Amino acid sequence: MKRILLIAPLPLRFELTQDEIYRNLPLSKVKNFILPLHLATVAGLTPPEYEVVIWDEAVHGHIKANNVPEDFDIVGLTGYTAHLPRAVEVSKLFRKRGIPVVIGGAGISSLPQKYYHDFDVLFIGEAERTWPQFLNDWQQAKHKKVYRQVRPIDLLETPLPRWDSIKNDMDSYLLAGVQTSRGCPFNCEFCDVSYLFGRKFRHKSIDLVLAELRALENLGMHKVVLCDDNFAGNPAYTKELLREMIKLNNSFPMPMGFATEASINIAGDEQLLELLADANFVEIFVGIESPNKESLKEANKLQNFNSNLIADIKKIQSYGMAVRGSLIVGFDHDQTDIFDQHFRFVQESCLTVPSIRVLMAPPGTRLWKRMRKEGRLLKTEMEGRFYGNPGTTNILPKNMSRAELLTGYLGLIEKVYDWRNFAERIKGFVANVSRKPQIPKGMKYYKRVLQFIYFTIVQMDADSRKIVLDIIMHTLKKAPFMLPRLTGFIIRQYGYANRPKLKESIEELIRLEMAGELSLEIAEDEDLLPPSFLASYERLFRGIYQKVTDGLHDKSLVEEPVIAIFAEYLQQNRLSQDKNEPMLLEEIGALADRVIADRNSKCESMAEKSPVDSKDIGITGLDDRVLKAVEQELLIARVQSNA
User: Fold this and answer.
1) Nearest residue to 410 via CA among 510, 526, 523, 309
2) pTM, 2 dp
3) CATH C-level class of 179-454+490-497
């Protein structure tokens, strides 16, 4: 039997996180925050003739030359941008042994050219089709270097995650994860969700979601994060799912507690809020971003721009669900008074333990492209050990210096996570709760109570302990049923209030900035696409896509040759003068004829498969996804030529 090792590498870390706090509590075996859903999904996609082993470095320790058996046939890694430096180290270890190393995930999907030579195979985009395709190609010794999924997949193709290789490690995780959907209908400038997964909301079948929850409950997991970018992106689907979740949860001996992410507009749907509360949702993560209306408009966060944010936050919280707001400083319309604005907003809206960071431009996003064109995008590797810190940024701010931005950010988080300010917010949150969630069975909190007593007595100082006791008395008076939920918020507050590594790293950044000792390199604007091509691209795309669709024998492989046609044409003609649209169409069309003939000559079957109607192309946003892939191919070609 062939063996596959799937690894979740450790990211760079700068702050004391909630899972690290739980490591210090009695009766707790927690080593990581959330189960590796990404790896379990890939395991579920793997045919049964393969043995799959999951290795989470946060739980099982760093992969080293002396602690991993050598009898694996394939090693797979995944993660976000912050995971990639460690992934490269792990890759070197196995490639030295002659074991092929493959990588996928959001990080590599955004920057495949940067890590092209560090891995044997790169997966760009969703893996539901490309992973099985790779395994089939690998068995026949004809696998490719890059596998790319362009068209968004139907999530009905997503399998039940496989947890069998780590079923004995469930106590090592604080939370489980289930994904019900992908994509987001909004298009915020700084967000990479639409860039990676598209704006069309896609969801799993309700039966599959329920099956995943049953499997996790059988494994002893009672806290679940629904890992959606916008859980309420399709309200009708979400309500139907919640009704079934309520029935399922009521059938368990101990109900599950849930958290998820949603947009602020859920505040306008009372039926949805009631269902969320009665399904035992404890917390909703909401991208608030800024109290500055001009910054919201700049970021294209129009759903927030049109909202009365404080009123909507309090409406959600009135159902007993905390809003964990995400806040960002450093927008172009932010000036030095923005930090005081944020603090007043946090306190007035009673955000329990908000997540606050400095604006970053994730690779490939519209913000990233705009900053690059304006000469304000930094090469993040120049900040070395500081990269990944929520107080750092890869852009040059517009209305303040970097030192002012960092100083203001440090002052803001110190005020927000001050225990007295936290107490004011948490008491306001409790006082605002007007509806008790209709949960027939309570969770068994004996273990948490013991942990919390230990936590407050042993780990807190006298002043913090006094504040916590005041919060408890206030809650017992106003809404005693909320007390079990508050223990988690208090523990998280402790983590945010005690982050010496984060404070030290920001202070060091400020010192280097003030002393002029931090050398920051501006990323060059790589103008890979001629203006005349971009001006005509949408019409060119439709024509070439239809031409390939009509001429290709295998209709299931349309996107790949379309990308190859545009990339090859631009690689050959990038430095030539701008051309008019008829000339472009004629030249690209001639290249398309050659590519179609070549692909047809290699096609094993003449049978037509799943033809695509060209009138649907613009609706799905496929032209943008193909253009992104073309840019990546040009960058990869540059890396290959420089090797």
Assistant:
1) 510
2) 0.92
3) alpha beta
